[in-house]
Design brief:
Helix content is 11%, strand content 57%. It is built from one helix and eight strands, in the order E-H-E-E-E-E-E-E-E. A hairpin with a 5-residue loop joins strand 3 and strand 4.
Length: 106
């Protein structure tokens, strides 16, 4: 199911992933030289917040506790327009940022 509203994206994150262990795959692109950086880990989502930023977009902040106990923060910019923000398929959420993509899997 495509998610096109910020409110719905937050609902899915809270209902399906908050306080639960999941796999996180975070891909970030550097627009200057088109390199990509990929991070992956397992952890428990403990906090999430969506705020406006100075570039007329939104910042999605996810805080999780990794399996080794380390606190990990993922900050990604997502479009302020409510179109094609994410895709939810049973057990898998893909979030599309302006220069990053985050996939969460149960």
């Amino acid at each position: 199911m495509e998610i096109q509203r910020h409110e719905r994206l937050l609902e899915v994150l809270k209902e399906q992933f908050a306080q639960q262990e999941a796999a996180f795959f975070f891909t970030q692109w550097d627009t200057e030289n088109e390199d990509e950086e990929v991070s992956q880990f397992r952890g428990t989502l403990t906090e999430l917040k969506l705020t406006d930023n100075e570039f007329d977009e939104k910042d999605l902040l996810l805080i999780l506790t990794a399996e080794d106990g380390e606190i990990v923060e993922i900050l990604m910019e997502i479009p302020s327009e409510e179109v094609d923000l994410a895709v939810w398929e049973e057990g898998r959420l893909s979030i599309f940022g302006t220069e990053a993509e985050l996939v969460l899997e149960k």
